[in-house]
């Protein structure tokens, strides 16, 4: 079974930040809040679909 992936824009909307903030954090730190994307052959980034749940679960603790 293949892992479900979402775009940076979709992740940004779900966690209420700008997509540029996610890309900047990735560029500076190599991750966004501990999450690392999958880089496709065309250079675009895709994030695990469960990333939103992981981020929101960490914020509620």
* Cα shape: globular
Q: So how many helices?
A: 3
How do the SSEs run, as a string of H and E? EHHEEH
Strand content: 5-15%
The name CATH uses for the topology is Multidrug-efflux Transporter Regulator, Chain: A, Domain 2
Structural class of the secondary structure composition?
Answer: alpha+beta
Count of structural domains: 1
Q: Report mean pLDDT, rounded to a whole number.
A: 89
Structural features, described:
The chain has 61 residues and is α+β, with helices and mostly antiparallel strands. The chain has a single domain, classed as Multidrug-efflux Transporter Regulator, Chain: A, Domain 2 (Orthogonal Bundle), CATH 1.10.1660. It is built from 3 helices and 3 strands; from the N terminus they run βααββα. A 3-stranded antiparallel β-sheet has the order 1-3-2. A hairpin with a 5-residue loop joins β2 and β3. α1 packs across α2.
Describe, in short, the structure shown:
48% of the residues lie in helices and 13% in strands. With 61 residues, the protein is α+β, with helices and mostly antiparallel strands. The chain has a single domain, classed as Multidrug-efflux Transporter Regulator, Chain: A, Domain 2, CATH 1.10.1660.
